[in-house]
Specification:
Strand content: 15-25%
Number of helices: 10
Shape: globular
Distance between the termini: 31 Å
Largest sheet: 8 strands, parallel
Length: 458
């Protein structure tokens, strides 16, 4: 009988080079400090809230007035509590959506919450609630502005940078700046000075990641919670511009998502990277809404995703070398709807349960030639449900293929899972079958595998 463990990274590496100049080039690409921190806090909430909440729209019309913002109460502390219950580590707030309405007291426009009956600075309320609870706080700012008269002129960059300066300078530490590339088909032509925008962020919040239309976090390519079979973090550098040149990176009302480079299946294999002179560390973020819509609408109450569905998305995103940005839109009463709260609570319980029964959790480090495979023996038969594996991404993303075998009670091994890239985290379902041990086999790697941790859970 053929020995299934005969060929591994130490002696075969699936027939590709283990160490050469190209491998050295690929593994020289590593995350920044901010990107690494993000990988350690990979689940956070998106909060779409603003004028569209009051008017019941997904996108504004450009004709709204401050008096249309009829919301009387806003309770960010409830949002924060729900985020914590779900296991999320932060909140990103839509400080200005495409309609141009500002949720803070901007000195550069009258189209602001300061001129409504509510009056209070919602960005400050949210930032304070997050910081008091130890959660990260991030900002979403739409470059497309239907309301601002200078939009489409050279003066608009000054306007936008002035507002960025307000948001980045007045609300404490900002973890992420989310630039949306969406623009309606009838929008005035406007060329954004992206490099200037980035510099404002770097100057005022050097530890913040710039997402989507930005160089630090890439859009996964859809809004349904799906990821690729293999999610690479080392990709061609030109992908940093994929959303900048796109006119629609998310759905308008009744409009389908257009095909973008970000939707290509293979973004980082050796074959793709071989012809690219410039590479970058550009991890994927999965942005998905708990409802069909991004802003709250009572007609979407029936579309709230279940805790089970959200957990599946969690496994497929956080558990597949991505971060998860789950949108939960507050209602016109300024709170998360009870259905959303129930689903978040259920999600939190499922995530907590995933790690609640550890069988073995080990720190590993750099593997050696003696580690052609690694065995884990249990003190009694166990019914394994999950394995969690993390690479030390400070040494780049190296593993390209691996297998997990389970050792049955009779001493024989059966393959339970075959995977490709690992990256910051890989969560794999093992089926709950009884076993007395497990075996990790690295089949292919870019240089010596650098594993941070592996854990088996019942």
């Amino acid at each position: 009988m053929k020995n299934p463990f005969e060929k591994n990274w130490t002696n075969y590496n699936n027939g590709v080079p283990l160490e050469d100049e190209e491998v050295s080039r690929l593994i020289s690409v590593v995350p920044s400090g901010a990107q690494f921190r993000l990988s350690q806090r990979p689940f956070y909430l998106f909060v779409h809230f603003g004028m569209n909440t009051a008017t019941g729209r997904e996108w504004g019309s450009g004709t709204e007035k401050c008096s249309d913002f009829t919301i009387k109460k806003v309770k960010p502390k409830q949002w924060v509590k729900c985020a914590q219950v779900a296991g999320a580590t932060g909140i990103i707030l839509t400080c200005k959506h495409h309609d141009g309405f500002c949720l803070w007291h901007s000195d550069y426009t009258d189209f602001s919450v300061k001129n409504t009956d509510f009056g209070q600075d919602i960005v400050k309320l949210t930032a304070d609630a997050c910081h008091e609870a130890g959660l990260d706080f991030g900002i979403y700012v739409s470059p497309w502005d239907m309301h601002e008269k200078s939009y489409g002129t050279s003066a608009y960059d000054n306007y936008f940078c002035n507002q960025l300066t307000e948001l980045l300078g007045n609300y404490g530490e900002i973890s992420e700046v989310w630039f949306d590339g969406a623009k309606g088909a009838n929008a005035r032509a406007c060329e954004y000075d992206w490099q200037r925008y980035y510099q404002v962020v770097r100057d005022l919040q050097p530890q913040a990641n710039i997402a989507v239309c930005g160089p630090d976090i890439r859009w996964v390519g859809n809004e349904s919670g799906k990821t690729r079979k293999t999610e690479y973090s080392v990709v061609p550098k030109y992908l940093q511009n994929a959303e900048i040149i796109a006119h629609s990176s998310q759905k308008a009302e009744g409009e389908a998502v257009k095909s973008l480079t970000s939707k290509d299946e293979d973004l980082g294999s050796r074959a793709v990277l071989a012809g690219e002179s410039e590479l970058c560390w550009y991890p994927a973020e999965v942005d998905v809404s708990i409802r069909d819509g991004w802003f709250w609408n009572k007609n979407d109450n029936r579309t709230v995703k279940s805790g089970k569905k959200l957990f599946d998305i969690y496994l497929n995103s956080v558990g597949n070398n991505c971060t998860l940005l789950l949108n939960v839109p507050p209602t016109v009463k300024g709170v998360f709807h009870r259905k959303d709260v129930r689903a978040l609570k259920n999600l939190g319980k499922r995530v907590e349960a995933l790690y609640s029964k550890p069988v073995i959790v080990e720190k590993l480090g750099a593997l050696s030639k003696d580690d052609e495979f690694i065995d884990f023996n249990f003190d009694a038969p166990k019914k394994l449900k999950y394995v969690s594996i993390s690479e030390n991404i400070l040494f780049s993303q190296r593993v390209e293929a691996f297998d997990i075998y389970l050792k049955k009670i009779n001493g024989k091994y059966t393959k339970a899972y075959s995977g490709t890239a690992i990256g910051s985290k890989k969560l794999a379902c093992l089926g709950g079958k009884a076993c007395v041990g497990a075996r990790l086999v690295i089949r292919q790697s870019r240089g010596t595998p650098m594993l941070s941790e592996i854990g088996f859970y019942e």
